[in-house]
């Protein structure tokens, strides 16, 4: 089970969760995502990793409540609650090339 350590409403339909997931936080890179499943029988939801804190062992996801599962996330899950699965990080990390100023 994974625990929601922070929940913040950003708008009436958008919210964020900080999830206690030290293994995911330690392996995460920019551009990756996680698969979330709230409980047995629930659908798997892909969510982009918005931020991660290796020292705290947390991963942040930002969610817009549009479908059945994301509305359930918004309405039924609060700070301190747990949910079934948080699998990741998945996907290819974003490669960002260093930028330098050109001399004129």
How would you portray this structure in words?
The protein has helices at residues 22-27, 68-76, and strands at 2-9, 14-20, 33-37, 45-53, 58-64, 82-83, 85-90. The protein has 104 residues and is mainly beta. The chain has one domain (2-90): Beta Barrel (Elongation Factor Tu (Ef-tu), domain 3). The longest helix has 9 residues, at 68-76. The protein is globular and about 55 Å long. The model has no long low-confidence stretch (mean pLDDT 93).
Overall helicity: 10-25%
Write the element-wise H/E pattern from the N-terminal end onward: EEHEEEHEE
Mean pLDDT across the residues is 93
Low-pLDDT runs: none
For the sheet with most strands, the description reads: 7 strands, antiparallel
Instruction: Give the overall shape, derived from the CA principal axes.
Output: globular
Q: Which structural class do you get from the secondary structure elements?
A: mainly beta
What is the CATH third-level topology name?
Elongation Factor Tu (Ef-tu), domain 3
Number of strands: 7
Measured by DSSP, the beta-strand proportion falls in 35-45%
In DSSP terms, counting alpha (H) and pi (I) runs of 4 or more, how many helices? Answer: 2
Strand ordering within the main sheet: 6-1-2-5-4-3-7
Number of folding domains? 1
Rg is 15 Å
